[in-house]
């Protein structure tokens, strides 16, 4: 451990490659200052501004048409596109009457053109993953509203890598394709937009290239530094993320007096536990306590999501345990994971509920704390808590 610490000190104070990379990443960028790049909703807001023909960028429908053409004509979407002529039709006809909306019926970006009788649905996934049935649900919702009016609905699933959506009707789009469009606009439309607008777009391009390893020079520098100092970076990453979760959880538990805090390090994640004080039956969960219903926050090492779980530990009193399950069953099983619990009663612990949230800045305690509050205040979790507490009193 002492050797790794010494290597870390030498890296940050005397390694020219590290100092050069740090200077490059620390350059001024308004998106960095406002931490806009870390939140999915902010990306959607900026894209909506770019796609809207009537916005202050003075680029009309250029970005929207170029992006649509690139996505609809992509080889990976060839089975979905009706024809090249159909895809190019949007570019030729123009989309100056396009109306762009954010979070319309939970859809990230919805674009409607009355002249073309077309609706473009964009589900934007920068950090989070698609929840089960999400894309199909959104598409059906928009079709139900617009198809009867004679509109054609074009669904697009926008992710960093161009992943496929759960619903096969969606066109796949990547941020790399978006980056190509923005670079093209900055290079070829200098006479259309002001220098301030083009500089603003360039700042966003810089964010995409830095944050998502789209800049080959930066990506290679990072790879070289990691290869030469792997132990140092692994230690810094693991320790830093774990300490931030602990600090945020301690603050969160202090703000919520109905919770009794504790902690345990799992195999694949740092975990922070808290018991609900209103529930007391007398068994031992991961460490000595008199509580049986637990909440757990985790930051999994495989991604940047914050996760929340609600866990029930099987009671030592079998009669009380069966009475508890029967009471849950009598109230319905459409909340949380209760249906799964009722199907298998042989385990020692059960996950009653789970939810996740992306876009967490793990270097900022306020961002982690806000994520915890968002997960904890979920209406579904509140409903499940009431149901569980009522069942325990039975």
What is the distance, rounded to the nearest whole angstrom, between the alpha carbons of the first and last residues?
Answer: 53 Å
What does the radius of gyration come to?
25 Å
Give me the strand/helix succession: HHHHHHEEEHEEHHHHEEEEHHEHH
Largest sheet: 5 strands, mixed
Mean pLDDT: 75
Helix content: 40-55%
> How many distinct beta strands?
10
Total helical segments: 15
Shape: elongated
User: Helix/strand-derived class?
Assistant: alpha+beta
Tally of distinct domains: 2
Sheet-strand content, in percent, reads 15-25%
Query: Which strand order do you get reading across the main beta sheet?
Result: 1-2-3-4-5
List low-pLDDT spans. 1-13, 263-269, 278-291
Which structural traits does this protein have?
about 400 residues; five-stranded antiparallel beta sheet; about 50% helix; elongated; disordered N terminus
Secondary-structure blueprint:
Elements: H1 2-14, H2 16-25, H3 30-33, H4 40-51, H5 62-72, H6 84-93, E1 99-104, E2 107-113, E3 118-125, H7 134-146, E4 152-159, E5 171-174, H8 175-188, H9 195-211, H10 216-228, H11 230-255, E6 259-265, E7 269-276, E8 293-300, E9 306-313, H12 318-330, H13 338-343, E10 349-357, H14 365-376, H15 379-392
Parallel strand pairs: 3-4, 4-5
Antiparallel strand pairs: 1-2, 2-3, 6-7, 7-8, 8-9, 9-10
Helix pairs in contact: 1-11, 5-6, 5-8, 8-9, 10-11, 11-14, 12-15
């Amino acid at each position: 451990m002492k050797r790794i610490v010494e290597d870390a000190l030498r890296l940050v104070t005397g390694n020219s490659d590290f100092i050069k990379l740090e200077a490059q990443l620390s350059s001024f960028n308004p998106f960095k200052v406002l931490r806009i790049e870390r939140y999915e909703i902010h990306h959607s807001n900026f894209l909506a501004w770019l796609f809207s023909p009537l916005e202050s960028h003075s680029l009309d429908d250029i970005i929207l048409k170029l992006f649509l053409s690139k996505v609809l004509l992509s080889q990976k979407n060839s089975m979905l596109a009706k024809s090249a002529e159909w895809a190019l039709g949007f570019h030729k006809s123009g989309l100056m009457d396009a109306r762009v909306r954010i979070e319309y019926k939970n859809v990230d970006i919805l674009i409607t053109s009355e002249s073309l009788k077309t609706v473009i649905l964009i589900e934007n996934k920068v950090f989070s993953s698609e929840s089960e049935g999400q894309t199909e649900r959104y598409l059906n919702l928009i079709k139900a509203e617009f198809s009867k009016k004679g509109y054609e609905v074009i669904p697009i699933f926008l992710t960093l890598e161009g992943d496929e959506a759960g619903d096969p009707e969606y066109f796949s789009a990547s941020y790399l394709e978006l980056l190509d469009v923005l670079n093209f606009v900055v290079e070829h439309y200098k006479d259309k937009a002001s220098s301030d607008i083009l500089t603003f777009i360039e700042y966003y391009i810089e964010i995409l290239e830095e944050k998502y390893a789209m800049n080959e020079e930066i990506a290679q520098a990072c790879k070289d530094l990691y290869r030469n100092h792997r132990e140092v970076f692994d230690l810094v990453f693991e320790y830093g993320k774990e300490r931030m979760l602990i600090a945020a959880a301690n603050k969160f538990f202090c703000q919520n007096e109905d919770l009794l805090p504790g902690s345990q390090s799992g195999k694949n994640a740092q975990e922070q536990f808290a018991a609900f004080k209103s529930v007391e039956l007398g068994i031992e969960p991961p460490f000595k306590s008199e509580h049986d219903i637990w909440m757990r926050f985790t930051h999994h090492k495989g991604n940047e999501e914050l996760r929340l779980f609600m866990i029930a530990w099987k009671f030592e009193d079998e009669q009380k345990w069966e009475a508890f399950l029967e009471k849950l069953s009598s109230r319905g099983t459409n909340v949380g994971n209760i249906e799964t619990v009722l199907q298998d009663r042989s385990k020692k612990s059960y996950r009653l509920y789970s939810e996740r949230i992306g876009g967490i800045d793990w270097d900022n305690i306020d961002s982690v704390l806000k994520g915890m509050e968002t997960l904890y205040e979920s209406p579904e979790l509140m409903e499940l808590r009431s149901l569980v507490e009522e069942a325990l009193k039975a």
